[in-house]
Q: What sequence folds into this?
């Protein structure tokens, strides 16, 4: 799913998420102090502390009992949530393709940094699921899942996110890649993820046709996910109003993210790979590895 | 427009096909979107917009149907015929009866006579009106509907309308706004509509409103400016407007006003339908227009419209539907339509042939032959193939297109009127060539006898050959016994010497055995030969006779057959010989001696003895008048000299003296207009202003009759002559006297001669004679006036009392004026009067014949005016004139005086004085030439000239130049006949280098009626000069040609005569087979026999317009295009592809 060039490009990147506390060892400094050998700080001794951690030199000099605190270490739990509803098949190239590629890239970055990465595809419910795990073999699992994801369902973002949130718990970075075209919105699901301790990162993928639709004089629009539904007859004059609506929806989403302090990125499906990565960096959840 | 033809049936399936294609994807384009809920939130289409968009969807279909309909309509070649109306009213009795209203319409233009001193706006408003025919001059016998009189004083208006525009009388008035006074009047009504309130007008004079008769149509303020009146004698409009200083003429209302006025004046306002009592309303019948049908093929406009629709329709397709195959398809369709509309032609099939028959209608073909020729044309035209066309041009001296090329030609009667008096092959060929179309095989069949009498057909033949037009010829010939009897030619040598016998031969042609009486007459119409002739079996008869002339001159011979003047022909012979001079003088002068010794034949004659027969001077080349007083030369002789010079080409040399050249002399008589100088007094600075008082006797004795005329009448004439003789700058006064003076006209400059004449008429003789009081009054006038010379001319017939005489002496002694006396009456006191005159420096005359009184008085006045002569020694100067050629300019003599004169326009100096006054002046007059010497050759004035070594040469050259002379060998003149006259060609002798320099060549052509026309020849080549002469009447013409080098190096003259026979068709009979063969050969044609068909022969490939094929192809492709875009074909392909793939698998 990723070419060698793209992979090389990704080698230098890391997920700039907050370090996730985890029992497992990892490359990341955990927020909790842990059992690494790396000194972090002193703190006054409290009863119950391991006597081995008392710094006796300080006690000898200052007659104070202080305990040495060491850095904890942990790994990031990366949850990739990719929308595979039929609406994601729109656009040239299809939004889904862009979404899959991005998911693959993030997975690659996570695995390269010894983080745990897992993927779930969903439409109105979670369709396939590879739970986050560390290790190189996870890449293939994730890639297989992405590749084999079948499209065609209807979107119900809230439903899918609630289902996913119920099955997992934080901490972890949940990257939701979707077009967020759902009349019911996705805020409920996103809030539930937050509640479950996950940090959702929102990546909205929109194709050019949706941004700037070219319609004939009188086009009959039907819903991709519901071909038999009521069509809508619009003309070229309606495009502007539609664009305003689209911008409004997108802005709502961004406002929500900003309010929750969540990373947010909007991607065009036709954007080249490096531009996609650059957008993610700008959104703040990818960082150059120190 | 015929649409219901087979093409209409093509239309239906095509449209059905299109509808089928359109139905394929008639629903809206469907499109899937992932966020329909967002779209739903936009404003949905309202029903109106839906309907509009539905229309838009159908608009495409409508355009497609329109394209198909228009293309099929174009294919149907619709022809629109409309009636092109011409303004020729066809006044047929039938329509007049049927429709009185229509008959009352008069469409002929209103004739307007415009009498104006020039008013731009007035002229423009009339001239630009197409309904008017405006003339500036009244022509006799023409009835004018309207007379426009712009300040022309009195205008005669018989029964026509009169528009009077009063001139400005100078009354100060101001421009005031125009007000329509009578809006019910037809003139005023239109102005109300136009609105005149912004216009200002300046009345010419203030009219009194009370005295106006008629309707006031327009007022400027309170002053009426346009007033109309209708009376028994017609309608009249008076326009009291100063057009030059009003703004009215600048406005658009003015032309309307003028047009309405003219219409009303011409009583044409009934053009508009008007109802009258007791007249039943008649429905207007068809207007009797004569109409011509204009047929116009609409195919091309339709194709262009289809092209436009195609492009618009393409534009309306959505981008997705403009696929590449559709684009290619559409481009091909557009290209096909465009090429079709542009008239692309492709060669296929043999071209059709167009034959124009040129049928000779000249009178050289007898009527029977002409009928045969027409029958032959009909028979030839009947052999044309399908698609061929034939037309007919009838020609004689001009050509007319009788029938334009059409698919069938059968002419029973030639309707065109062509002049039968000539055969103008050139015009015929030109007309035929012009009538031919530009494509296909083109042929002209010339049905003629091939005897062109006018024009030069060779140019047309060459043009026809270059353009690939074949000219076939069919000789139209009458059998020998039907040919008319004609005068084929009258031949005589152009030139012969005096007394040399020459032959005049007449050739007559006609049917063998015909008899006629041939008469040959000389100039004066006297028959010199009458002979009965019989035409020999070969069809000709020749008559020859010998003539000789003993006097030089131009002689003409005129031959007629059986006295038929209309068919007369003739010849002109120019007889040359020794130059003969008629020397008219009381005694032999030095010039006569010079001329005689130089070999001129000089014949002396006393002025009284001069013969005055018109032909008496015919044998002479020039007349010399040496010191001949005008009154000595009989009037008839003077007239003969004038005719001799003007029409006979003779010369006149006038050796003037102060007596013969004065005001009262030649300038008054028949010779006056011949003179190159003007001796009438001129205003100039040389002589100071003079005061002249004429005092004449009105005593009772003046009532006596002298040779039937009262003396007082002679005195009156004398005063009038004096008035003519003095310059305008001189003051003149007239006083009549008996016992007391009676002022006729006080001393003043340029008095009104009419007024003086009237005053003179009122003077009746009576009373005694007392000169002194009159003289005293004259003296008073003269001293009061601001003049430098004072003169009194006293005319008296009797004696005066001694007391009076003493007073006279006293007055003369006190003097200050010069007194001249003319005493009429035998008992005049000569001694006293002479003494009286001489004491003041004046002269006294005692004429024996009282009738000389007016002339004497005028002469004395002219002498007194002092401008008449210049008496001082001066050196003569010579101009560059042929007469002065070769004179030693450095050693010119000095003269003592001359008579002052001025050159007339066109005259030239030969010798001139220090004051640039002519001494010897010369010019051409009519056919002849005139020279005048003004310095009194025999008087002491010219002593220097007489003793000058060049004296003899000067007069010899003068006589040669003036004299008719022999034709100069330097010039060679020929006559080339042309359709409307002849072309005079003069060639200089190329051997002398002078021919290379530009010459100034003139010809004076005398027509048989005696008029002389002056022609300037234009250079047509090196040393070749040409001019066309018009020959309005038949008869002998004489052209006297003068060539002058620009530098004066050449001065040659030639005389050529020719006889213009009116009917030049009567020169030859029978067909000129050789000429016809030559014409046919030159263009690759042939001589047609009676049974030949002009329509066979090789034909080129025809280039035919293929727009119909292109349009049809475009139509089919268009359907394919539509199907492509509807996705019909691509679906077929998609369906076909899996099948083939399966087959491959």
A:
């Amino acid at each position: 799913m990723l070419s060698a060039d793209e992979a090389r490009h990704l080698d230098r990147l890391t997920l700039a998420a907050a370090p996730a506390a985890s029992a497992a060892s990892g490359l990341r400094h955990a927020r909790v102090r842990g059992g690494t050998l790396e000194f972090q700080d002193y703190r006054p001794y409290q009863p119950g502390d391991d006597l081995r951690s008392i710094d006796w030199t300080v006690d000898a000099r200052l007659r104070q009992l202080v305990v040495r605190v060491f850095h904890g270490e942990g790994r990031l739990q990366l949850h990739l949530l990719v929308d595979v509803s039929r609406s994601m098949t729109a656009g040239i190239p299809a939004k889904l393709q862009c979404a899959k590629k991005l998911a693959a890239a993030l997975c690659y970055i996570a695995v390269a940094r010894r983080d745990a990465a897992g993927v779930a595809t969903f439409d109105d419910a979670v369709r396939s699921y590879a739970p986050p795990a560390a290790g190189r073999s996870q890449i293939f699992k994730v890639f297989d899942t992405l590749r084999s994801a079948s499209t065609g369902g209807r979107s119900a973002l809230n439903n899918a996110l609630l289902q996913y949130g119920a099955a997992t718990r934080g901490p972890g970075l949940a990257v939701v890649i979707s077009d967020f075209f759902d009349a019911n919105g996705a805020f409920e699901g996103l809030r539930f993820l937050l509640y479950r301790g996950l940090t959702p990162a929102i990546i909205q993928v929109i194709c050019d046709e949706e941004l700037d639709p070219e319609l004939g004089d009188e086009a009959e629009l039907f819903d991709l996910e519901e071909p038999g539904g009521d069509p809508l007859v619009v003309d070229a004059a309606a495009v502007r109003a539609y664009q305003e609506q689209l911008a409004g929806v997108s802005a709502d989403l961004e406002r929500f993210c900003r309010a929750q302090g969540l990373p947010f990125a909007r991607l065009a499906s036709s954007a080249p790979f490096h531009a996609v990565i650059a957008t993610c960096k700008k959104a703040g959840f990818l960082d150059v590895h120190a | 427009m015929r649409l219901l033809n087979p093409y209409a049936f093509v239309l239906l399936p095509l449209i059905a096909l299109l509808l089928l294609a359109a139905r394929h994807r008639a629903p809206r384009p469907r499109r899937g979107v992932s966020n329909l809920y967002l779209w739903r939130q936009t404003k949905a289409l309202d029903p109106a917009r839906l309907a509009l968009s539905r229309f838009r969807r159908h608009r495409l279909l409508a355009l497609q149907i329109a394209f198909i309909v228009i293309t099929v309509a174009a294919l149907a070649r619709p022809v629109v015929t409309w009636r092109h109306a011409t303004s020729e009213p066809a006044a047929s009795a039938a329509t007049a009866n049927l429709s009185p209203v229509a008959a009352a319409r008069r469409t002929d233009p209103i004739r307007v006579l415009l009498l104006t001193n020039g008013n731009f706006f007035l002229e423009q408003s009339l001239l630009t009106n197409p309904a008017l025919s405006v003339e500036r001059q009244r022509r006799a016998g023409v009835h004018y509907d309207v007379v426009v009189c712009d300040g022309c004083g009195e205008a005669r208006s018989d029964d026509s309308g009169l528009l009077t525009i009063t001139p400005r009388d100078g009354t100060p008035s101001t421009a005031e706004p125009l007000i329509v006074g009578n809006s019910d009047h037809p003139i005023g009504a239109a102005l109300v509509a136009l609105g005149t309130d912004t216009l200002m007008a300046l009345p010419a004079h203030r009219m009194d409103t009370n005295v106006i008769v008629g309707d006031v149509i327009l007022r400027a303020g309170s002053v009426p400016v346009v007033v109309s009146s209708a009376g028994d004698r017609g309608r009249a409009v008076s326009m009291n407007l100063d057009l030059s200083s009003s703004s009215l003429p600048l406005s658009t209302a003015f032309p309307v006003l003028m047009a309405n006025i003219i219409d009303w004046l011409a009583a044409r306002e009934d053009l508009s339908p008007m109802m009258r009592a007791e007249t039943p309303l008649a429905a207007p019948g068809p207007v009797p227009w004569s109409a011509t049908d204009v047929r116009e093929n609409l195919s091309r406009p339709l194709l262009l419209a289809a092209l436009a629709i195609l492009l618009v329709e393409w534009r309306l397709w959505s981008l997705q539907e403009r696929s590449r195959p559709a684009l290619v398809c559409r481009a091909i369709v557009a290209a096909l339509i465009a090429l079709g509309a542009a008239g692309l032609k492709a060669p296929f099939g043999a071209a059709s042939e167009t034959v124009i028959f040129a049928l000779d209608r000249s009178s050289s073909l007898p009527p029977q032959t002409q009928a045969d020729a027409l029958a032959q044309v009909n028979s030839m035209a009947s052999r044309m193939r399908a698609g061929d066309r034939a037309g007919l041009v009838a020609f004689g001296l001009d050509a007319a297109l009788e029938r334009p090329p059409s698919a069938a030609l059968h002419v029973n009667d030639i309707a065109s009127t062509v002049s039968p008096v000539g055969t103008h092959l050139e015009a015929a060929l030109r007309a035929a060539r012009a009538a031919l179309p530009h494509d296909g095989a083109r042929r002209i069949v010339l049905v003629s006898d091939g005897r062109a009498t006018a024009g030069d057909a060779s140019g047309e033949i060459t043009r026809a050959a270059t353009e690939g037009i074949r000219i076939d010829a069919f000789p139209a010939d009458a059998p020998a016994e039907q040919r008319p009897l004609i005068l084929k030619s009258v031949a005589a040598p152009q030139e012969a010497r005096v007394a040399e016998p020459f032959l005049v031969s007449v050739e007559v042609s006609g049917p063998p055995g015909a008899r006629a009486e041939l008469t040959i007459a000389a100039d004066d119409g006297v028959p010199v030969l009458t002979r009965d002739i019989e035409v020999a079996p070969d069809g000709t008869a020749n008559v020859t006779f010998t003539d000789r002339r003993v006097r030089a001159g131009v002689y003409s011979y005129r031959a007629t057959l059986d006295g038929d003047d209309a068919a007369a022909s003739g010849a002109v012979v120019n007889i040359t010989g020794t130059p003969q001079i008629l020397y008219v003088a009381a005694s032999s002068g030095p010039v006569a001696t010079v001329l005689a010794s130089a070999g001129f034949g000089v014949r002396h004659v006393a002025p009284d003895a001069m013969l005055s027969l018109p032909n008496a001077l015919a044998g002479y080349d020039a007349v010399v008048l040496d010191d001949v007083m005008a009154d000595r030369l009989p009037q008839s002789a003077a007239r003969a000299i004038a005719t001799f010079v003007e029409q006979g080409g003779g010369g006149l040399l006038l050796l003037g003296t102060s007596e013969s050249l004065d005001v009262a002399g030649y300038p008054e008589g028949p010779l006056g207009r011949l003179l190159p100088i003007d001796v009438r007094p001129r205003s100039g600075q040389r002589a100071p202003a003079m005061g002249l008082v004429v005092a004449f006797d009105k005593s009772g004795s003046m009532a006596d009759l002298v040779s039937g005329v009262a003396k007082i009448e002679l005195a009156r004439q004398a005063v009038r002559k004096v008035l003519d003789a003095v310059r305008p700058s001189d003051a003149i006064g007239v006083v009549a006297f008996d016992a007391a003076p009676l002022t006729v006209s006080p001393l003043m400059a340029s008095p009104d001669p009419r007024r003086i004449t009237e005053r003179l008429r009122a003077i009746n003789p009576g009373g005694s004679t007392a000169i002194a009081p009159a003289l005293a009054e004259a003296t008073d006038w003269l001293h009061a006036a601001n003049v430098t010379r004072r003169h009194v001319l006293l005319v008296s017939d009797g004696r005066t009392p001694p007391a009076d005489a003493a007073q006279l002496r006293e007055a003369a002694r006190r003097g200050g004026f010069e007194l001249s006396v003319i005493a009429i009456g035998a008992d005049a006191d000569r001694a006293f009067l002479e003494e009286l005159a001489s004491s003041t420096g004046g002269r006294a005359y005692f004429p024996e014949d009282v009738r000389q009184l007016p002339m004497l008085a005028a002469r004395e006045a002219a002498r007194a005016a002092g401008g008449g002569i210049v008496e001082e020694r001066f050196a003569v100067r010579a101009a560059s004139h042929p007469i002065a050629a070769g004179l030693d300019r450095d050693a010119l003599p000095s003269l003592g005086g001359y008579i002052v004169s001025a050159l007339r326009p066109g005259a030239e100096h030969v010798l001139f004085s220090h004051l640039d006054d002519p001494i010897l002046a010369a010019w051409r007059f009519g056919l002849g030439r005139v020279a005048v010497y003004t310095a009194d050759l025999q008087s002491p004035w010219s002593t220097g000239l007489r003793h000058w070594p060049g004296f003899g040469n000067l007069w010899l050259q003068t006589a040669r130049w003036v004299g008719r002379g022999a034709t100069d060998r330097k010039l060679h003149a020929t006559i080339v006949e042309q359709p409307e006259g002849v072309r005079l060609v003069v060639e200089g002798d190329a051997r002398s280098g002078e021919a290379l320099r530009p010459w100034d060549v003139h010809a004076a052509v005398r027509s048989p009626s005696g008029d002389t026309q002056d022609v300037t020849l234009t250079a047509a080549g090196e040393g070749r000069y040409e001019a066309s002469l018009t020959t309005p009447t038949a008869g002998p013409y004489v052209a006297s040609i003068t060539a002058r080098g620009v530098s004066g190096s050449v001065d040659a003259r030639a005389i050529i005569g020719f006889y213009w026979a009116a009917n030049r068709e009567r020169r030859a009979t029978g067909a000129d087979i050789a000429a016809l063969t030559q014409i046919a050969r030159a263009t690759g044609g042939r001589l047609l026999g009676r049974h030949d068909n002009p329509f066979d022969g090789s034909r080129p490939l025809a280039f035919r317009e293929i727009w119909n094929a292109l349009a049809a192809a475009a139509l089919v492709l268009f359907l394919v295009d539509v199907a492509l875009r509807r996705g019909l074909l691509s679906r077929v392909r998609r369906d076909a592809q899996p099948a083939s793939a399966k087959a491959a698998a």
In short: The mean pLDDT of chain A is 85.
